[in-house]
Design a protein that fits this description.
The chain is of the alpha+beta class and 296 residues long. 39% of the residues lie in helices and 23% in strands. A hairpin with a 2-residue loop joins strand 5 (167-175) and strand 6.
Length: 296
């Protein structure tokens, strides 16, 4: 495993050599300058990769990851392939969710990959995913920051799943440091929990000025006021026991069990419209839909 890892360090940047035809005379200077900068960046990235490889041998996995990230920044053309190296280092230090995420990025972004490395990455991701769970957040409005257990995972819409260990996790959507949505979810191994969140912003219109009072017109006939139409209660009630009048008289949204059943906490000014678990999910999926209206 380590041998193949070290070989790939050379493949990641070695494949980027410049085998080009000679430039035309009119653009020779500009092209040579660009080629010189690219060659310099590639050499600096190779040095960072070598440093990362040395740290891997010393079992300094955090240091190795830092060097590989630096190589990605120095030479972006090799960044997708270097996700393979990062995945190996993450797995070596025991962060399986981060390793699965790196293998996922490697397989989805890298195009020119030797078949044996692609096959190894697939097998590693398949093995890791069997022991992990995944969160798939669907929110079409762009720009909401997505946090899982306080760790940032990008902004909506997310391109890929968030890999997590089985158990309870807190998923949060924020905008301008303001929490718009928070939910405590349970994730099982080998299962993807799909959460569909719809946040609608509404601007409350200013209240128009009250019209001046007018003298009432005499009624032509007096009619008994019609009773207001009956509306079904928000939550069905049962006949209360003696001594529970205070519970039945309180509005349903003020009762603790209403919010406990909702399972989502949102910022002040946001109102839950829909919260449901869908039954039309594919295999190994759990689907949950939440719709919110948020007043800024």
């Amino acid at each position: 495993m380590v041998a193949s890892f070290i070989v790939f360090l050379g493949l990641a940047l070695g494949a980027a050599g410049d085998a080009r035809p000679a430039p035309a005379a009119a653009t020779a200077t500009a092209t040579d300058d660009s080629s010189a900068k690219a060659a310099s960046a590639r050499r600096a990235a190779q040095a960072a990769l070598a440093a990362g490889n040395a740290r891997m041998k010393e079992r300094d996995f955090a240091g190795a990851i830092a060097e590989y990230r630096r190589a990605q920044t120095i030479y972006p053309p090799a960044a997708p392939k270097l996700e393979f190296n990062i995945a190996k280092a993450e797995e070596a230090r025991g962060d399986e969710p981060a390793a699965a995420a790196a293998f996922d990025r490697f397989l989805s972004q890298s195009l020119e990959i030797p078949p044996d490395y692609r096959e190894e990455a697939r097998n590693e991701l398949r093995r890791l995913s069997a022991a992990l769970g995944a969160l798939r957040l669907s929110e079409k409005r762009p720009g909401f920051e997505v946090l899982v257990d306080g760790r940032e995972h990008g902004k909506t819409p997310l391109e890929r799943d968030v890999w997590v260990r089985p158990g309870r996790h807190i998923i949060t959507l924020e905008q301008d440091n303001r929490v718009l949505f928070r939910d405590d979810v349970e994730v099982s191994s080998g299962v993807t929990l799909q959460i569909t969140v719809t946040i609608r912003h509404t601007d409350a219109p200013a209240s128009p000025p009250a019209p001046p009072p007018t003298a009432p017109k005499p009624a032509l006939a007096l009619a008994a006021p019609s009773p207001p139409p009956s509306q079904p209660p928000l939550v069905a009630r049962t006949t209360p026991d003696a001594g529970s009048a205070d519970q039945t008289s309180a509005p349903v949204w003020k009762r603790w069990w209403f919010w406990a059943a909702a399972g989502a906490v949102v910022a002040a000014g946001a109102t839950i419209l829909i919260l449901s678990t869908r039954n039309d999910c594919p295999d190994n999926f759990t689907c949950k839909s939440v719709s919110l209206t948020n007043s800024p």
